[in-house]
Amino acid sequence: MTALVHDTADVADDVVLGDRTRIWHHAQVREGAALGADCIVGRGAYIGAGVRLGDRCKVQNNALVYEPAVLADGVFIGPGAILTNDRHPRAVTPDGKPKSATDWDAVGVMCAEGASVGAAAVCVAPVVLGRWSLVAAGAVVVDDVPDFGLVAGNPGRRVGWVGPAGVRLVPDGEAGGWRCPVGGERYEEADGLLRQVAL
Predict the structure, then answer these.
(1) Is the pLDDT of residue 144 over 80?
(2) Are residues 185 and 195 part of one domain?
């Protein structure tokens, strides 16, 4: 099945859309963007020029994903969330002239496989969101988030760990051991990082 683009959406002619991807009402997808298969871009969402989405990504209503963001497979961007791209935002240069695209270097947010950004959270580029990490609603992320990290607050700080199910992990056995209460997967923490233990 080919992609579905709502009549009110603004999708540039050169955008690449994977099979079964859906672009909903009043969304904008800029030139050079590429979206994989089975993606959903919600009402009023914005996908910047050259942004890359893997397969099965969801960008919810009114979320803003600015270039040069890259989202791996299975990434979730919640309603009203923002992935920024300007380290030093200004409307004008120091001499008062309007800034143009040549007056700044875009930096992006990189989201690894399965990462999720909650509603109205802001990720201030450049940051990397690790595999299966979860940014809580309303958080402001200014530092990289490790794989499986659960980040909340302003500025965002790691407050726990989550597994692929998105549920907070619980302590398991010896110090540094964690377990998913949904799927039972086990993890070990060392030096501020988490790794899954093979069964």
Answers:
(1) yes
(2) yes
